[in-house]
Amino acid sequence: MKKILLLFTLLGACTSLFSQKYITVSGSVLDSLDKAPLANAVINIDYGKNIFITDAAGKFKFTFKKQDIVMTVKMLNYVPFRTNLKTDKDTTLIILLKDITKELDNVNVNIKGQESNIKKPIMGVSSLSVKEMARLPSVLGEVDVLRSVQMLPGVSSVGEASNGVNIRGGTTDQNLVVMEGAPIFNATHMFGLFSAFPSEALSGFDLYKGNVPSRFGGRTAGVLDISLKTPSLDNQKVQVGLGLVSQKLLYESPIIKDKLGVLFAGRAAFNDFLLPIVSSKLENIKAKFGDWTGKVFYKVNQSNTFELTGYQSFDNAQTNLISGVENINSTETIYRYVTSNFTAKWNKVISPNSTIQFIGTLSNFTPTIELPEVNTTNEVEIVQNIINKQFKVNYQLTKGKHALEMGTDATHYVINPGELIPNASTTVNAFKAPNETGLEVGLYLEDEWKISNAISIIAGARYSNYNRLGNTTFNTYLEGLEKNSDNSSGTVNYKSMASENSYGGFEPRLGATIRLNSTSSVKFAYNAMRQYLQVISNTTSPIPTSRWKSSDVYTKPQIAQLFSVGFFKNLNENVYETSIEGYYRNTDNIIDYKPGASFLLQNNIETELLQGKNKSYGLELSLNKKKGELTGWFNYTYSRSLNQVNEGQRPTQKVNNGNWYASNYDKPHTVNMAIVIKQTEMHDFSFNFTYSTGRPFTTPSALVRLNNTNVPYYTERNNSRIPDYHRLDFAWNIYNPKNLHRKYKGNWNFTIYNIYGRKNAYSVFLRTENNTTQANKLVIFGSPIPSIGYNFKID
Amino acid sequence: MLKDIIKKLSISGLFIVTISACIEPFELDFVGKTSLLIVDNPIISTIKKRQLIKLLKTLPSETSSINVPLSNATVSIIVDDTEKIKFVESEASSPGSYFSEVEFAASKSKAYQLEVILGDGSKFMSDKETLTDVTPINRAYQTFDESGKGSHKVYIDTQDPAKESNFYLWNWILFEKQPYCRSCNARTRYNERPFGEMGTCDQDLTEFVSDSGFDYYCTGKCWEILYSNGNTIFTDEFSDGQEIKGVEVAKIPYYSNNKSLIIVSQQSINKKAFNYFKLFNEQNYKSGSLTDTPPATLISNVFHVSGPKLPVTGYFMVSSQKEFRYVINKNDIPNTGQYFPIGLLPNGRNGNPEPLGLIGGRPPTAVCINSSTRTSNGPIELLD
Fold first, then answer.
1. Which of A156, A598, A739, B294 is the most exposed place for a label (fewest CB within 10 A)?
2. Which of residues 134-153 of A touch B (CB under 8 A)?
């Protein structure tokens, strides 16, 4: 019976073949805007079986002997046209091709606006829209700001579980991360695996790593300024994302049409209940996190708007990848940390040329360590806290060739460096390290002056002043000797705002552009920045419970000066942007640590700290294709980051004998490549590739026999490198084109992170077990990680 | 079924990948560049005995470091800058081991300083170290840790003296019953010697020899003596004057079903020594986390004074110590069929005794030879 069926099928196919006739397809290929004929357009039939070229009038004609063909029309600088032509009679086609040079940018990883990368007198500024981030591959399908910025030149991290990014060889805490103007002290979930921003509600970010506008201060390496969407004032929108890790929701709605709108976005990940099902060994691992934001936007009239924004993120995590707390005996260590931010903004348009903004922010970050005691139900807690309040007034005026920005800000910090709460414990004493309270005041003025068509400058300065508030008692130490308990000579009390506890100075910000022609320019920049607040952590990447510390009589503020120069060239009517930037940054008073230092719940922390210098320099090459079916970028960075710490003669007062040494973030060669191919309205796919030199780590100079065990003996820090890092990722987004104009739009997202499963080392270390010492590497993502997600929105 | 589906889904993308990560062996090209004097963490204790100082020297090597005993040194302990106690090398039995000529015990009111003069005239002196009292261990107890192949964690409680900073160090000695006293390689067979001496493994070409080698039961009772590799340390910074409870001092693999004895030694050390061992433990036993601190030079309290310069590692201590004997019972091991004793043979392999009666009169038993790692004089707690 099967054979008979097959025979009939074959016969049917043959009948169909013999009944085919010759069909003629003719037509014209025209520019979609001005309808000009396009000569020499290439018409490709059935994947290269036949090729035709349009004539001078843009016309073509060919004949074929089939009922359906796959036809592609391509021309340089035009978006290709593809169709599956099904016809049984002669057909005439008018094909309109879109000129990509007249498109809006698809990918924008540079200064906003057409040609602005050439014209604007600023350098080292990048931005990326959330739409583009969503197209790029991500870990487990989570759209991630911090991973996306790592694809930009000059931005790196120490590995997959890095709690932040390193900008041009700086530490993570040398970056100011602000969302809606409020600083975020811990920008990641799960110790760095995911960014802690509700991606559905983001509109995009600006990353400043060269010229930093003078309205920003307080950090020495860079600024990541993240903005949220403005709630819709005309219709309701719902957006839902279902992923393997988290579930996301965005809801926005007008309350009063064209006047008042609200937005809510949230993300929650509570999948850790599955872990014990996978393996009983994972039953003690906790991994819950979430974040949400709400925004109210009120347009009082054409001149006044108000915005209120709330943001909260939380983590509850437990992993064997983090060491427990020493000297408190507990069965396990649970990390819980919460960020609560609030922003209020009033924007007032004073005149068509001037606006003023009043911004108040409150940031509250509370990391807690919970320690269940042995043989009891009691949990000992260690609580830390930072409360950061800021008020800022920003005025902008445009007049003639000048665009002025000026303002003032005042930031009040209260840091609780650590409080030990025994609860019902009978073995642990209560302890509280004294609060650190400080006030940082800034005044700034900046003018962007278009001197001529060829020359523009941006010149400004920020003056910042920092004071420790409240009476503070410090230990004193014998003159010229190492600060340690043996050399303590007594105590001294400083009153609020005492000069010994006050720091301040000017931070000039300069940028200049010399436009060589309409497509190229040369730029110069100088930036100075001061930092009065830093993380105290001697690990490669700080963890959320790392201690924050403000400057005081012993801990001097960090001061950085950045010089940069660049050449910018756009090609092919701004389809391609290229640039080369060189920079040199010198930072004084970086923080380093004595061997074996510990900071948690410690008084007199100055006995554990060292201060030194960092010099970072590099060259960043970038090629960015912004328009067309294929968009993306390629960049190469050469960068070095070196430290020198030499506070005195004793071995504990210097690192590597006081010589320059490679910092943990010294990765000389980095290549990043991102490609997005948007072939049809139905789908797009993208690839990321990244390569970087392995970061430094420390190898021993001898193995010595102590306690019947061969153990490593170290003399020189960061004298080796872990293996080079590289990784390829893939993402495929599938849309339903029929939904484009419908209220309900859904899309599938399929990603593979680390396609070829490279076991990149997060760290290389030596460990002694069973009397032998073995070198090991810690791998975070050692295999391809596929994920699938479904997102839908209702407008 | 549902469980399987969830499991597959989870493995494909959930947190298992993200938070359990993995640690893999790494080929590290290692060149031993440094030549060092090793003072093998000597402790002058409050127990009157011939005190021991072990010296070694590390020689540079292209592939690793070579540690050799350092002989012909002049070793002394200087007490209160005046009295000198000489040490002599027991060259024959253990080169590089220097024993005090006389038995002595450290006492609280005195300061002790190590002096070492090498054959080439280079001289090394330690800081002056003094003794601080240590409190006794109040109790010890155990839990069975079900992770991996199973192990017993041993905890202790002790009372911390109030209003003073105290730094503790614990190490231990373990006695486990050893059924096998001799192992022979493949195609060899054990033959006794008279008068209780250790026999030999002789080549045997009969058809009954094993390709993997045989293990031979002990003649009489025998106990393996195992020592802690690292040290557990603790400071009372958060628990001054309280009872310190639940300090995990040992994690003992599930060697056998026989009860075993652990002797935990509690010592009082000073802050500098504490910092030394804290760094030592961090970079040797606690590495591999996301929060590793950069490895650093272990700064010894023994310094070069004169002559050819040589860096020193190791920490010289004077310490009072209190011991606590605790019997580890194995009756808390879950009877789930999941855990099996790993035995006391190298690499955790199972014993393979020579079968009875293959050849008349065999197999023989092997003598338990007393040494630093084995004894036939079992602790009283383990004698049935």
1. A739
2. 140
**A426 interfacial to chain B (CB closer than 8 Å):** yes
Whether A599 has its CB under 8 Å from any CB of chain B: the answer is no
- Once rounded to an integer, what is the mean pLDDT over residues A12-36? 69
DSSP B141-187: EEEEE-STT-EEEEEEEEEPPTTS--EEEEEEEEEEE-SEEEE--TT
Nearest residue of A to residue B311, measured between CA atoms: A715
Residue whose tokens read 């506070």: A647
End-to-end Cα, chain A, rounded Å: 54
* pTM of the full structure: 0.85
Burial classification of residue B75, based on how many CB atoms lie within 10 Å of its CB (0-12 exposed, 13-18 middle, 19 or more buried): buried
Instruction: Please answer whether residues A309 and A292 qualify as being in contact, where contact means their C-beta atoms are separated by less than 8 angstroms.
Output: no
In a mutagenesis test of the A interface, which of B66, B94, B238 is the best target, namely the one with the most A β-carbons within 10 Å? B238
Check residue B241 and give left, alpha or beta (phi > 0: left; psi -120 to 50: alpha).
left
* Cβ burial, residue A89 (10 Å; 0-12/13-18/19+): exposed
Give which of B154, B290, B310, B345 to mutate to test A binding, by max A Cβ within 10 Å: B290
**Ramachandran sector of residue A516 (left: φ over 0; alpha: ψ -120 to 50; beta: rest):** alpha
Q: Which two tokens stand for residue A224?
A: 């990541």
Distance CA(A517)–CA(A538), nearest Å, equals: 49
What residues of A are in contact with residue B240 (Cβ under 8 Å)? 429
pLDDT at A194 over 90: no
Query: Between chains, do B294 and A704 touch, taking CB under 8 Å as contact?
Result: no
Give alpha helix (H) positions in B185-257: none
The answer to whether the Cα torsion of A117, A121, A124, A125 is positive or negative is negative
CB pairs under 8 A between A and B: 281
What pLDDT, on a 0 to 100 scale, did the predictor assign at position A275? Answer: 59
A381 at B interface, C-beta within 8 A? no
ipTM of predicted complex: 0.85
Considering only the beta carbons, identify the residue of A651, A705, A763 that sits closest to B292: A763
Burial class (CB within 10 angstroms; exposed 0-12, middle 13-18, buried 19+) of A431: middle
The single residue listed with the structure tokens 């700290």 is A609
Q: How many CB atoms lie within 10 A of CB A616?
A: 26
**Burial (Cβ within 10 Å: 0-12, 13-18, ≥19) of residue A85:** middle
Pairing of strands A761-769, A744-753: unpaired
**Cβ–Cβ gap B313/A774 under 8 Å:** no
Contact A651 B242 (CB under 8 A): no
Distance (Å) from the alpha carbon of B235 to chain A's nearest alpha carbon: 6
pLDDT of residue A198: 87
pLDDT for A445-466, tens place per residue? 999 999 998 999 999 999 999 9
Out of A38-42, A84-88, A468-472, A620-624, least confident range: A84-88
Q: Which residues of B touch A596 (CB under 8 A)?
A: 275, 278-279, 282, 293, 296
Length of chain B, in residues? 384
In the structure, what pLDDT confidence band is assigned to residue B236 with cuts at 50, 70 and 90? very high
pLDDT tens profile A715-725: 899 999 999 99
In A83-122, the residues whose Cβ lies within 8 Å of chain B are none
* Averaged pLDDT score across all residues of chain B: 86
* DSSP-derived 3-state class of residue A118: helix
Of A429, A766, A773, the CB nearest to B240: A429
Q: Which residues contact B361 (CB under 8 A, 6 or more apart)?
A: none
Q: What DSSP line would sit under A409-432, residue for residue?
A: EEEEEEEEEEEEE-TT-SS---EE
State phi, psi for A681 to the nearest 5 degrees.
Answer: -70, -15
